[in-house]
Amino acid sequence: MPATEVAASIRAGRRTAEDIFWQQMACIELAEPEVGAWHYVSPDTALAEAQHVDRFLPLAGVTFGIKDVIDTANMPTGYGSAAYEGSRPVWDAPIVTLARQAGGVMLGKTVCTEFAMSSPGKTRNPANLAHTPGGSSSGSCAAVAAGMVQVGFGTQTSGSIIRPAAYCGVVGYKPSFGMLNRTGVKVLSDSLDTVGLITGDVADAALVASVLAERPELMPRAAPRRLRVGIFRGSRWHLALPETAAALEQAASALAEAGCMTRRLPVPGFFEGLYAHHDAVMGWETPRSLAYERLLPAGKLTAVTHAFLDQLSQATLASYDAALGALETRAGLLDQILDGCDVLLTPAAAGEAPLGLETTGDPVFNKVWTLLHGPCVALPVCKGPLGLPVGVQIIGRLGGDADVLAAAAFIAGALAAQRGGI
Questions:
Q1: At 123, is the secondary structure helix, strand, or coil?
Q2: What DSSP string describes 329-370?
Q3: How far apart are CA 255 and CA 416, in angstroms?
């Protein structure tokens, strides 16, 4: 049941928040043993929240899963690491408090990779349990995909919302940098970390974002009648698998059938260099953000985390300063890439979710957009040769979140019309 329908049914008196709570707990009981999306489920406190929800609040009864790098006072926050197992902050991150104040019911903490980096957790992809759900917002994406929760909080520093959303076949929304409050989130890269949402459809993402950001303009609305969409492959298109190429073409075809103006865009000469800038920014900031954790005794962190931090620490101060200097005009860089289009249509991931749980996939089609701070939405499009979801990514101008959400909703509708033949 989508979040928009949950809130509407509760406002109308057709359902209660407690009804929705028990419905979601039944889903968790059914799916969680196989999927493993949750680090901690809090039925007692969630039930108490549901029983006291004001039914006229905008998110009344909507259930949330909170990525385990986001602080919570009434639930453990382990940051995906055994080093913090059982740790309990003394406060809730503001984004959690704001969701509760709007009527949301917090069901628990979802699994993430260690410190939201590259060391996988226990979560499996609901579409095929032998495959990764992606990272680092793995638990939130899997929980939404399996119907266990309406909304998952995620974070993205490279591709940690968009990629797992594509792998799991759900909507991932990475807002413009700073749109949603990120205080109380375990810091990796202060210049890149972004709080976002995982939902079942675009309308849910728009509703929740409009409430939590206190921006009514983000509420679902119609896209322009003649939406101008740039088809953008990027400088590393050679890494896209056939199923991703097929998804991009299917989405472009649906847009053309819906009367949109589509145009194949060239790759600007500066684009490939943005990858190095992302790696320099994350590489310089992350080892310093985790300076304390790097001093922990051997065995406290996984070998994968140690190796990743060692790799990141190769970044130099000179490359970091050069990257920040080149990014002073992020909005201008995005405008150049968009080249007069309203939004871009581009890959969300290289292909279907990889087999196995040892890796979470490659953020190659996400890094640049996170670096440029603009809004991104992952949309499911089709199934690949293995029967797993494959998605595309909608990109917009810095601060143009309302336009991107409206465009994403329109594109989702065009895809649905194409599939239904109407």
A1: coil
A2: THHHHHHHHHTT-SEEEEESSSSSPPBBSS-----TTTHHHH
A3: 11
Catalytic residues: 67, 136, 160
Does 3.40.50.10300 match the CATH number of domain 1-265+330-422? no
User: In the chain, what are the domain boundaries?
Assistant: 1-265+330-422, 273-326
Say yes or no to pLDDT of 43 above 60. yes
If you compute the radius of gyration of the chain from its CA atoms, what whole number of angstroms results?
Answer: 20
Please determine, for residue 422, whether its predicted confidence score (pLDDT) is greater than 60: no
To which H or E segment does residue 63 belong?
Answer: strand 63-67
For the record, the structure tokens of 95 come out as: 């984004």
What digits encode the pLDDT tens for the residues 293-337? 999 998 999 999 999 999 999 999 999 999 999 999 999 999 999
Query: Quick one: average pLDDT of 46-65?
Result: 98
Rounded to whole angstroms, the Cα distance separating 274 from 230 reads 19
**Nearest to residue 171, comparing CAs of 421, 408, 416?**
408
Reference 114, options 371, 306, 287; nearest CA is: 306
